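Protocol step 6 of 9: fold each sequence in the batch and record its structure tokens directly after the sequence line. For illustration, a two-sequence batch is reproduced in full.

Sequence one:
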Amino acid sequence: MSLVLSAAMLGVGTRMTKYKPLLSSIAGACLLMACASDPAPAPSPSFEPPPPRAEPGLPPPVVEVADNAPLKYVVKKGDTLWDIASYFLRDPWLWPEVWYVNPQVNNPHLIFPGDELLLVWVDGRPQIRRSGLGVERLSPRVRNLPLDAAIPTIPIDAIRNFLRGPRLIETDTLDDAPYVLEFVGEHLIGAEGMSVYVMRLPENDVTAYQIVRRGETYRDPDNNKILGVEAIPIGEIEVLDYGSPAVARVLDSQREILIGDHMLPSEEEIFSANFFPHSPANDVEGRIVSVYEGVSQIGQYAIVALNRGQTHGLAPGHVLSVYQAGRKVSDPYKSGYGKVQLPDQLAGTLLVFKTYERFSYGLVMEAFRPVHVLDKVKNPQPGR
């Protein structure tokens, strides 16, 4: 709305001065009316979701609604984004295709406990949105909630121990890491409460480090190249004084600490709703090279390492299907009982949550049959 004040309406000339209070009042009223009808734009989202899978010029993928999908769902504490996507969709990794990003809401990609989600159809395609969008369009508002209050993409408890346990790291990272030079008091081994001298410790804001020991070296089963080395945690230290050497105190130790053990910054990572489950944009084919805690058969919420990483286009949030390698069986009607290769069997679905240059970690979200080390992973296919 705009309001034009003409000089004739108020009287012009020298008498204009006496109407200054009236002008101020009218101008203030105009400002209030304009604000009521034309609200200021909402702040921009702090990050963007992945783009839809459909490439330019290609039709979007067919999204199938799950059997018994609710028309309305109220988000509860303890829900994960994968859980909610599974309630609504047959293929949870197609969530970006159906989630309505409301530009009037700050951080529209985050979902919080108490949000009411609605399943609607727009132009014949399913769409999921928060309730009350009409109100939000007229009255943009900033949600005064901490980002870590949003529901996580995956269950945090499933990876909490992983962050403190043995894990693959790039070989150069371990080779260049700070290390124990000597123990204060000339002890041969270190334990909780003791002080140690540390070399290569950078002077920065990091004061808590995990003490690790070099474990097994892992190689790519496809080309035998080194993927990384296992870092086995044995304790935690706190920096007391920087220098060369620096001085640190052992806060905790699961086993004896030896001269030459390395240190890595403690990982306090929060895997909240910073990524959406979605298929990689490029074709990815790889293998499972190890499983956390070394179990022989891998089920739901097992953590696995893959021989594909950032150089292959993988990023947190990417979903891959797991295929159990088909067996070779004897054909009774072939001479000499010749072998026949059976097709690979879909065994499950995993979600990548941490990537490195040449390898990644994924969490098995679904397991239809037992999953094993060396099973294949590749892009998921809708409806499978």
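Sequence two, same batch, same settings:
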Amino acid sequence: MTAHALLGASGAHRWLNCTPSARLEENYEDTTSDYAKEGTLAHELCELKLERYLNPMTTRTYNAKHKKLKENDLYGAKEMEDATDNYLEHIKELMISFDSKPFVVVEAKVKFSDYVPDGFGTVDCLIISGDTLYVRDFKYGAGVPVSAEINPQMMLYALGAYLENSLFYDIKKVNMGIIQPRINNNSVFEMELETLLEWAENVVKPSAERAYKGEGEFNPSADTCKFCRAKAQCRARGEANLSLEFEKIKGDEFGKVFSNAEMGSILKRAQDLVKWAKDIEEYCLSACLRGEEIQGWKAVEGRGIRAFTDADLAIDTLIANGVAEEILFERKQLTLAQIEKTVGKETFEIVKDFVVKPPGKPTLVSEADKREPISNVTNASDDFKQII
């Protein structure tokens, strides 16, 4: 197996919906951000803790391996420990819920090449109990919650896990779960094996064949383009954005202002344009720094911020020359979130009665958002309730 599959499970939402993108991405370097590296480190910590729980491991061996992980500059101390402990507890609770000892594999390498050319992936934790295959995926990200429901990445993991174990177990259902502790997101979705195999045969297989050959139609969208390495230069995305024509929706009687319906349509498309413009800006800056020419643009040195070469020595020098120490330092209380992170969730429980959460500042989102809409307008029934 190579390090990365052309049609990997993590990018399935993209190449299933925009089949030519997989080959187009080959023209771009696969870079790794610090966030991704931090996630990899957290995964390694999860693996270590789960291996210790499942298999005999001396304290000395565990501590040595744990110490090595802590030496990484991206080690997140308490937050990373809490998140990985949360993952471990989830797996423990799942395992003790079974009537008999389940089959468990940590960091299971699975292949789904029967449906996806050279397709393979790694399942964080694979469990089989009775007629059900369980797939669990740990995500360290603290941004957008990831749902396990009809999630192509999880479904491909489950498909590969089934194919690897179908000769030994009579599997009829697959149970997929995403554990995202930093934002308290535990998402679980279960489906019949028959449904998974129908999806693999009728959706995955034909799409994967086209993607592997670089065939099919480009399908630019906010979801498919978000993590695509070609997102800045992709001509299909550019043409889709530049050729946008607002629908002819009747405005007011004079036609001098946009209607609310038109404004909603304009805003949706403007958001896509802003994201595209940002991607282009980042690409052009990188190109200039590589010595390439971008017509009409150049990279320059930004505004620098003054800093001490040795802050401690600078402070000591000021104090030695008569400057009062107390005016050089500021005592500032940590925010609620910082306090919770510092003392830990368990200790923080003792002050939970002092915590309130007022309504957040109104924000505009797509109508697909699951939150209830709000308004400053009250109706008669609300006013009546307040009176009584």
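Proceed to step 7 once all outputs are recorded. Observation for sequence two: The longest helix spans residues 260-289.
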